[in-house]
Amino acid sequence: MRLHVGCAMWSHRSWQGRFLAHPLPAHERLRSYASWCNAVEGNTTFYATPNRETALSWARQTDPGFRLVVKLPKTITHDRCLTDVDDIARSFLDAIEPLGPRVHAVWAQLPAAFGPADVPLLGRFLSGLGTGHRYAVEVRHPAFFENPRAASLLTSALAPLDAEWIPFDTTVFFRSPPTSDAERDAWAKKPRTPLRTAALTDRPIVRYLGRDDAERTVEGWQPWVDVVTGWLREGRSPTVFIHTPDNADAPLLARRFHDDVRARVPELEALPTPIPAEPLTLF
Fold first, then answer.
1. Rounded to 5 degrees, what are φ and ψ at 104?
2. Among 234, 216, 173, 248, which residue's Cα sits nearest to residue 3?
């Protein structure tokens, strides 16, 4: 039984000297992060396909139990809208091959313009990727959340592929107006989608956005503690990513979420002991 938790990235300026040693070479930052969390969102691949040597470096910095949910490049999902992308997709899957079992899922984050009429295209695209990976999809078109027929259309397309539907829970964030620059920026950019807590597979994935106030973030995720506890008791292996607008305390909050669930499920495997951000001394 294992719960994977993590953040939207493995390096952040505000983490230096707090969660990650400083200075720390770029090729060592994932190793340090992986002592705090056992999963990470692979958002960097949205902007460019990494070369195999980069993927091999990520593998060297993590143990086989670490998990990456690796986002497909925007060229595939946004620029070409899943059309005429076979060569790009094959190149991407080849590039991440050195990660091996660390790839928890290949993640298609689709634009808000992707609606119910596009679901058959998604099914054909995912089927064409082959069975070498698990796949997960994030949609933002309102119809998938407001129209039961649209939701059923999507789940029916994903089920035969054992693909997951990733919810991005921003409901707590949008309950009250922003109070910081980071929150104001997120207010303008993050999607406003209704809460969805259903799992399609035995490996559900959740993205949760709280507030810059840690206690409000913790208060807001309590329903997810219940849901994740239930998933674990059903034999599922969930992955939960904790976001805040500034992400300043995200690694600590991810561990706190794990602690909250482990208090309910004591047999849950513990997270690793973090690598100290400052050198140990004799005094």
1. -70, -40
2. 234
Contacts of 276 by beta carbon, 8 Å cutoff, 6+ apart: 21
Q: Burial letters for 131-152: b for 16+ Cβ neighbours within 10 Å, e otherwise?
A: eebbbbbbbbbeebbeeeebbe
Q: Is pLDDT at 20 greater than 70 in this prediction?
A: yes
Which backbone phi and psi does 265 adopt, to 5 degrees?
-125, 80
Query: What are the residue ranges of helices labelled H in the chain?
Result: 29-33, 52-60, 74, 86-95, 119-128, 143-146, 148-158, 181-189, 214-220, 222-233, 250-264
- Residue 128 CA to residue 37 CA, distance in Å, equals 32
* Separation CA 105–CA 72 (nearest Å): 10
DSSP string computed for 184-248: HHHHHHS---------SSSS-EEEEE--SSHHHHHHHTHHHHHHHHHHHHTT---EEEEE-SS-T
Spell out the domains of the chain, with CATH numbers in brackets.
4-264 (3.20.20.410)
Displacement of CA 136 from its chain's centroid (Å): 10
Q: From CA 107, how far away is CA 43, in angstroms rounded?
A: 9
Q: Which amino acid is at 247?
A: N
**Mean model confidence pLDDT for the chain:** 95
pLDDT in tens, 175-212: 999 999 999 999 999 999 999 999 999 999 999 999 99
Is the overall model pTM greater than 0.70, yes or no? yes
Please give the structure tokens belonging to residue 90: 């094959």
The bridge status of strand 239-243 relative to strand 205-209 is parallel
Residue 23 has a pLDDT of: 86
Please, what is the angle between helix 86-95 and helix 119-128, to 10°?
50
What tokens appear for 56 in the block? 């091999």
Confidence band for 69, pLDDT divided at 50, 70 and 90: very high
